[in-house]
Amino acid sequence: MPDEKKSAPVATTPAAAPAKKNNSTMIIIIVVVAVLVLGVGGTLISRWVARKAADKIAGGILGAATGSNVSVNSDSGTTSVSNGSGSTSVGNNVAWPSDMPSTVPQLKSGTLTMATSDKTNKAWSVEADKVSQAQFDVYKASVESAGWTNTATTSFGASMITYEKDTYDLTLIYDASSSGVSISVTTKSE
Questions:
Q1: Contact 91, 76 (CB under 8 A)
Q2: What is the 3-state composition of the chain as percent helix, strand, coil, each rounded to the nearest 5?
Q3: Segment 52-76, tens digit of pLDDT
Q4: pTM of the prediction?
Q5: Cα(11)–Cα(1) distance, integer angstroms
Q6: Angle, vertex CA 82, rays to CA 77 and CA 83, nearest 5
Q7: What's phi and psi for 63, nearest 5 deg?
Q8: Domain residue limits, the chain
Q9: Which candidate, 185, 43, 166, places its Cα nearest to that of 106?
Q10: Residues 141, 145, 183, CA angle at the centre, nearest 5°?
């Protein structure tokens, strides 16, 4: 055999195990973040649940006392009461009555704070605040251009104007000192 050079076997040493990082700092950070998230989130959720429970309880008590369907919504700041003969909503997020006669122009300015609908007597009312004199004058003009006839005007610190059209009377009151408007629509008395 030709001269074969044999190489000496090379000893393989196992690779050194990577140094373990100290994960305790990472674990502490994760635990602290989890506690904060659960603490703040838990507080917010418990407040929300408590507020919703209070809304339900208040609605139930008022409903039992009045025999009406009562909805209290503390998120929007609105309380609504309704039964078969009508409804009333009071608060910060009140809507124009959906069954208001279509000949009554919708008030577009200010903030509606109350709306009622009485199906039995065919009567509606709306109250709003934050209405300037100029905005009131625009609304009054829209009532007149919708064909309502002015039947009386009086002023006693507030302006009160009554109108009639078809089978309805409309009373419009504006108090400049509070920037408040009241609109009442009733079926004409016979």
A1: yes
A2: 30, 35, 40
A3: 444 455 455 555 555 555 555 556 6
A4: 0.64
A5: 27
A6: 165
A7: -65, -45
A8: 23-70, 76-187
A9: 185
A10: 55
